[in-house]
Structure formats: structure tokens, C-alpha cells
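User: I'm curious whether this sequence folds into something compact or stays loose and floppy. Could you predict its structure so I can see for myself?
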Amino acid sequence: MKSNIVFSSENMGWITPEKILSRVGEIDCDPCTWEDNPTNARVFYTIKEDGLIQPWSLTGKNFINPPYGHFQIAWIKKTIAESLRGAESELLIPAKTETKVWQDWVFPTANAICFIRARLSFIDPATRKPRKAPAPFPSAQVYYGKDVDSFRARFSDIGTIVTTRWTTTKH
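Assistant: Here's the prediction. I'll summarize afterward.
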């Protein structure tokens, strides 16, 4: 018997809660969304268009709530690659800071991170309603860009903001 398949490999896609979207603000590109574009991004890609191979915005904000599971690293690497081209991106991922993904990819490259205080209740894509139970892990909003002060102002009320060495160096 399975007690909880939230974010397991059986169900990797969940819609971002309004608590996060309202803080992100206007989204120029959402490279991994649903067909009805729940983030209201100007440009969006579904699984059919494969946002990993599509161009992301270099003039506006990219928002990424990637499928969880083993696919997540590909989205993190793509976000890093786009940031090196000058893109501003925000990435919502599980805050599993002990993992290789965080140690080798997130911490060394992000400009700022918000460790969200409470566990998020994501939206079920089938019902379009919040899940009854919150995610079984903490979440973090990871920022790649130059405007760390704006990121801090938008997210400091829901979590602790940490800046990284990349904040003071050009990459």
C-alpha cells in the first residue's frame, strides 16, 4: 500500500501554489508548465514542446517548477546554463540540501535562496485544487539573477533568504 505519492516518480508534476506565484510576479517564460498555462507566462512550454531544448527569456523572468524525481537535475542544469547567458530565473525545488544536486549544482551557482518556512500545498493538476496534505519535504525558491534585493523583498516574509558567493561575483 502506498501512503503518499506526492512528488514520487509516479506523479512528478504539480501546479505551483498561489503563495509562490504571487511573489514571483510577472513571468516571461515558464518552460515546464501545463497546457492551460496556470502561471500566465507570456511564453510557455509544455511537456510536448520540451522546455529543456527551447530558448528561455533573456529579457524577462523565467519561472521553473520542474518535474520532481530524476528529471530535476536536467532542469537545474538548464537554469544554470541560461543564467550564464544572462537570464533571470527562479526555480522552485525541494530543499533537500544534503543531496548531490544541492551540493554540486545549487549552492555553487545560485545568487540567492529562500528556504520556505512551511511545507507547500501544491495544486493537483487533475482537480485544480490544493492537495489535502502538504508536500512531504520542505521547498526552496532558488534565484539566479542580478536583483537579489528584489528577490529578498518578495520572499523574506515566507522564509529565510540566503545569498551565495555568486551574489558578489560575475558569472
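Summary: Confidence is low (pLDDT under 50) at residues 1-11. The two ends are 48 Å apart (CA to CA).
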